[in-house]
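Internal tracking record. Fields below are filled automatically when a chain is submitted to the structure queue. Please do not edit lines marked as system-generated. If the sequence contains nonstandard residues, flag them in the REMARKS field before resubmitting.
Queue: standard
Priority: normal
Entity type: single polypeptide chain
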Amino acid sequence: MTESERDRLVKLETKVDEINKKLDKVIDDHEQRIRRLECKPAKRWDTVVAVVITAGLTTAINLLVTHLAR
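SYSTEM-GENERATED OUTPUT FOLLOWS
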């Protein structure tokens, strides 16, 4: 293998490494976006459950206070 072939191979390897690093960053970014999108429905259900529990407790307390006030 001649010196020029080695130089070309080293340059190619360097370019491939740079491309690989860029792709790793892009993949990590996409994984984070997908995780956020997958969590949104769960967060909505958490909010719905919290609102329903709050409404139920508020209604129960109001009924109790109304009954005791009579």
